[in-house]
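Working notes for the structural subgroup meeting. M.R. asked for a predicted model of this chain before we commit to crystallization trials. I am recording the input and output together here so anyone reviewing the notebook later can reproduce the run.

Input as submitted:
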Amino acid sequence: METILFNTLDLALLFTIYQCVLFAFFLVLIKKGKQQSNVLLAFFLLSYAAIPLDTLINFGEEFRQFSIDFSPNVFYVFGAAYWLEAVLLLFYVRSLIYKNFCLKKIDLLYLLPFSLYLIYEANHWYILDIDTKIAILNGYHIDSEPFYTRFINLFRECFRTFCGMLCLFELHNYQKNIKDNFADIEDVDLTWLKILTIGFLIIKVQSVLTTIGYITSIDLHFTINYAIIGQLSNFMVMFLISFLIFFSLNVSNIFHGIDRLTLIIPEKQPIDPNHISALTLYMSEHKPYLNHLLTLDNLAAQTFIPPRQLSQTINRHFEQNFFEFINSYRIDESKILLAKIENEKVTMLEIMAQTGFNSKATFNTFFKKIVGMTPTQYRKEQLKK
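Returned structure, recorded in token form:
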């Protein structure tokens, strides 16, 4: 006997719900690491689980009738997740890339559409009595919805797309500025999170196209098979959630948080000469660059120069970012070691470790960029002399 309950699309939606709920509990109860990010990701997953559940309740024939019999109040309540999941993904990305991330008053603006939706449904649906709700649901047809509801849906999908674009912007900003804060960035791999963010953005764009197709089919009588686009999005979500679960397990080890304040470009002020001399003297006497874990904050604490002033001094006076500034000192140190006869048998890995490098690729690439030859070639040239 054929039944809608077990068709491929419904199974994909059910599996997506199962994945999201299960992994959300895992994040909160078991997974270690950055707890704030884990909680935000868990809320994102739970909100995303509500979206296929809303789809099943409203458009799955067996699920719809069961929901009407169970309680008409379950209709539209899970639809609030549409206004929330993209915002939670944005907050999750920010919690990963910024140190001491916390929500500010201005961030509450992202939650305004969600709040307005709750107010709207409370005044247009939940104030009705049960019999009226059942009558409306039994007589419901998608073509009979008023135009303004389609306009609201289009705005909703555009808002979700906007939040997805903000996620990409934040990641681009992080990648552009990380070299101003860290000298070792070899283990920072944004590929998985970029793929995830772009994947969800594509789904949101598809949702915009689905809504436009829905509007043109009903109001302009220009038929577009928007259902196919919507179904494709559901399958993509299932695979993206699986991708997220697999790659986010080690997320706390990937990201080095940067200070959001360092991204604010202040008015150009003269660089304090005392900062220049103090930094130069400290670098030559104490050689902090030999520590491969050195960061901008570490160096600021050691030199007693505020991080923002230190970053400006390096960027504007030395015309380098922090990554280039520290690694240039490491290259100078490695040149000294490579030129010594007693180090002829010392391996490149040992030279690399002694000079503060934590990555062979960074060491070789940076050495060739500055010196014009590989470390091996340089040692041969110096030993000949």
